[in-house]
Amino acid sequence: SDHSLDYPTSPDAVDWAIHYPAFASSGRAPEFADVGCGFGGLLIALAPLYPDVLMLGLEIRVQVSQYVQDRIAALRVSSQPQSSPDIAETHPAPYQNVSVVRANAMKFLPNYFAKHSLSALFFLFPDPHFKSRKHKARIISPTLLAEYAYVLRPGGIVYTITDVHDLHLWMDSHLKNFPLFEPVSEQVLREEGKGPIIDAVYTSTEEGKKVERNNGQKWLACFRRIEP
Ligand code: SAM
């Protein structure tokens, strides 16, 4: 349960330098959050594409979050630049901008992210919780949407994707009905230059790859955080 977890009391209490040592002096905080990141495929895919954007995965399972942490550590070592330190300073080594925490994102998101600090929030292939008595366990719900709107800056994007049609309808309708989000099409996001993100959302995660192997369908739904 959550009792064994230590949570920061507020975003100010998080020492991001431990997560992103190469950015320690920058005073930056994460801008992308992958909720239920699983084995970290999205973070690993996006890290080199947006080397200046700090990204954080949140994963509730101990072994899985540890696996992601080890995976990032290994990538940081193996991709260290061989060239001069001056070059390393202007071009930070790859994967310095990604990290992960073991956390229950349904309870503690605002402990990690300050108001309006995120530009992207990802919900990729979340657990479907099929039975209706378990729907309250779903990661998208009216209460949680208020928290997601709080941590996202106006203009920020919520990306959702699933292979479960019923869950797609659920996430889509809840987000559509929430006053601080408006639907934004895949085409518009691609026109805005977010094509690489959309591609990663479709194909980079372990769950997404599994759906492909099984020839399953994927439903994408994206929303923009708007000003009231
Ligand atoms: N997004 C990954 C992908 O596409 O491969 C993982 C998808 S997996 C079906 C759902 C993940 O969400 C699991 O790793 C699970 O442990 C995690 N999870 C479920 N509830 C969570 C919560 N409240 N906070 C953080 N992670 C959670």
**DSSP strand content:** 15-25%
**Number of DSSP helical runs:** 9
Radius of gyration: 17 Å
Helix content: 25-40%
Please state the overall shape, judged from the principal axes of the Cα atoms.
globular
Largest beta-sheet details = 7 strands, mixed
Low-confidence runs:
none
N- and C-termini, Cα separation: 36 Å
Global structural class: alpha/beta
Bound molecules: S-adenosylmethionine
> Based on DSSP secondary structure assignment, what is the total number of beta strands?
7
Q: What letter string, H or E per element, gives the SSE order? A: HEHEHHEHEHEHEHHE
* Spatial arrangement of strands, main beta sheet: 3-2-1-4-5-7-6
The averaged pLDDT comes out at 92
Catalytic activity: guanosine(46) in tRNA + S-adenosyl-L-methionine = N(7)-methylguanosine(46) in tRNA + S-adenosyl-L-homocysteine
Active site: 127
Binding site for S-adenosyl-L-methionine: 36, 59-60, 104-105, 124, 205-207
Pathway: tRNA modification; N(7)-methylguanine-tRNA biosynthesis
Compact description:
The protein is of the alpha/beta class. The protein has helices at residues 16-19, 41-46, 62-78, 85-90, 105-112, 142-151, 165-177, 186-203, 206-213, and strands spanning 32-35, 55-59, 98-102, 118-124, 152-162, 181-184, 219-225.
Structural notes for this entry:
The chain is of the alpha/beta class and about 230 residues long. The protein is built from 9 helices and 7 strands, in the order αβαβααβαβαβαβααβ. It has a 7-stranded mixed β-sheet, sandwiched between helices. The chain is globular and about 45 Å long. The N and C termini lie far apart (about 35 Å). Bound molecules: S-adenosylmethionine. S-adenosylmethionine binds near residues 61 and 105.
